[in-house]
């Protein structure tokens, strides 16, 4: 899919194909009742549809559009957690809702900001966020969410790989990173609010896209060393998050 | 004559009351939904839920009644509640999103639609089980059913053992099928005191 779309502005579709495959194999497409997991899938598909719509309409990267998309992702997080929050005590409910909104807005916003000028960087960011959220979900007691995150991360990596193999970036599609950023933030919040992942493990998540900016784009930015370096930089905050989540489990035996 | 009538009415009143539907409240300490499920094709894992509440209405004269059971899903216990090494226990995994998703669906509910009797004996209870927001029909077969005074406290009570089975994938609980079995066998012990 990534190869077929490599010359277009619709590479976000390739990222979503990873999501569609994993949902078909695990959760299924019977999306009723509207559980949090089903809302996560719908929100990510919605983000992809929005991304494709913006690209088709020729809306360029700008701060206002980026902020609006990030805010929409935050609202999606609140929608996803609606029933969970309703079952909580008021103080915990407010803390969870505000935390989920802030995390989703900041993760989506930073991903759009980091990836807006470079489809390769956007794909690298998407891969890091997908894989990172997948590992965090696994450590937070949800293998199902982990599979979704890892699949989106792998699809984003395929998008990066295709650009590297072609030796040039795809036409600028600034919304490319949107589905991966949304799914990563939603997986993180759900693994925390509905699972066992400790909330503070999610704090490094929005910093991962920004960390890739530590490796500046040079004249020959479509190069394997650059992609590797940017990927490693992005993985640093995610490694901190994973370490925080894995610490309590490090000396234990897995349940089965 | 008036006194005779009053006496007759007073004598007949308890009979009339006995024929009316009687309401019983489930005793949470003796109402235990147990379940078993195949594990990796190797063995069977057993578990149960605690603090189950609900109500039974019985009209034994009309051979009918109703049963409503509310099960707090967070009380699931499979003998692996807390690990001394701080690791994630099986019960914690079962409470998370992949299985019972207790943060989102804190209650499992069974509501009967019909109780079937053979004489005084309860045969089965037909109803609807709501799990993870999905409602599906479920028939529980009674393997025992008794009513009478509690031998210890003399309160009027009824008790039953009910068995049945569901497919967890019918309720959207698809994770790890078939490694962890799809069919869940239910063994529900019910005791209830007359209101």
The largest β sheet of chain A comes out as: none
Average predicted local confidence, pLDDT of chain B: 89
CATH superfamily annotation of chain B: Lipid/polyisoprenoid-binding, YceI-like
Could you tell me the mean pLDDT of chain A? 88
Number of domains of chain A: 1
Uncertain stretches of chain A: none
Would you kindly provide a brief summary of this structure?
With about 260 residues, chain A is mostly helical. Helices cover about 70% and strands about 0% of the residues of chain A. In chain A, helix 2 (about 10-25) runs antiparallel to helix 3 (about 35-55), helix 5 (about 90-115) packs antiparallel against helix 6 (about 120-140) and helix 5 (about 90-115) packs antiparallel against helix 8 (about 180-195).
Topology overview:
The complex is a heterodimer of chains A (256) and B (195).
Chain A: H1 2-5, H2 12-25, H3 36-56, H4 63-86, H5 90-115, H6 119-139, H7 143-166, H8 178-193, H9 207-211, H10 224-246
Chain B: H1 2-19, E1 22-26, E2 32-39, E3 43-48, E4 53-59, E5 64-72, H2 90-95, E6 107-118, E7 121-131, E8 134-149, E9 156-167, E10 180-194
Antiparallel strand pairs in B: 1-4, 1-10, 2-3, 2-10, 4-5, 5-6, 6-7, 7-8, 8-9, 9-10
């Amino acid at each position: 899919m990534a190869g077929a779309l490599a010359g277009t502005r619709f590479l976000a579709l390739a990222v979503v194909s990873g999501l569609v495959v994993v949902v078909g194999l695990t959760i299924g497409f019977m999306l009723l009742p509207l559980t949090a997991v089903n809302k996560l899938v719908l929100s990510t598909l919605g983000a992809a549809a929005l991304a494709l719509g913006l690209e088709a309409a020729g809306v360029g990267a700008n701060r206002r559009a980026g902020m609006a998309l990030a805010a929409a992702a935050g609202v999606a997080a609140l929608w996803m957690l609606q029933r969970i929050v309703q079952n909580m005590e008021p103080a915990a409910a407010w803390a969870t809702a505000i935390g989920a909104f802030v995390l989703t807005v900041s993760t989506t916003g930073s991903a759009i900001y980091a990836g807006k000028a470079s489809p390769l960087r956007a794909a690298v960011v998407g891969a890091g966020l997908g894989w990172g959220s997948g590992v965090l979900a696994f450590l937070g007691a949800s293998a199902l969410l982990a599979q979704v995150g890892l699949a989106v991360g792998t699809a984003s990596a395929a998008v990066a790989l295709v650009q590297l193999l072609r030796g040039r970036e795809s036409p600028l599609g600034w919304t490319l990173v949107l589905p991966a950023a949304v799914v990563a933030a939603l997986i993180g919040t759900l693994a925390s609010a509905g699972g066992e992942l400790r909330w503070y493990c999610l704090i490094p998540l929005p910093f991962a896209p920004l960390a890739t900016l530590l490796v500046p784009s040079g004249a020959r930015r479509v190069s394997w060393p650059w992609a590797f370096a940017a990927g490693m930089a992005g993985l640093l905050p995610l490694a901190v998050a994973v370490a925080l989540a894995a610490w309590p489990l490090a000396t234990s035996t897995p349940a089965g | 004559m008036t006194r005779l009538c009053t006496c007759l009415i007073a004598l007949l009143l308890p009979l009339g009351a006995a024929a009316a539907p009687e309401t019983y409240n489930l005793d949470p300490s003796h109402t235990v939904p147990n379940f078993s499920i195949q594990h990796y094709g190797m063995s069977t894992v057993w578990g149960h839920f605690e603090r189950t509440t609900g109500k039974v209405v019985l009209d034994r004269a009309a051979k009918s009644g109703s049963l409503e059971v509310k099960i707090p899903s967070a009380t699931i216990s499979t003998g692996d509640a807390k690990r001394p090494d701080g690791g994630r226990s099986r019960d914690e995994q079962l409470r998370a999103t992949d299985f019972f998703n207790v943060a989102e669906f804190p209650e499992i509910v069974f509501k009967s639609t019909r109780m079937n009797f053979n004489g005084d004996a309860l045969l089965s209870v037909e109803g609807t089980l709501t799990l993870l927001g999905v409602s599906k029909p479920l028939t529980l077969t009674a393997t025992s059913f008794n009513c009478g005074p509690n031998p210890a406290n003399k309160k009027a009570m009824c008790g039953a053992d009910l068995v049945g089975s569901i497919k967890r994938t019918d309720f959207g609980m698809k994770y790890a099928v078939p490694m962890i079995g799809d069919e869940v066998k239910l063994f529900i012990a019910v005791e209830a005191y007359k209101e």
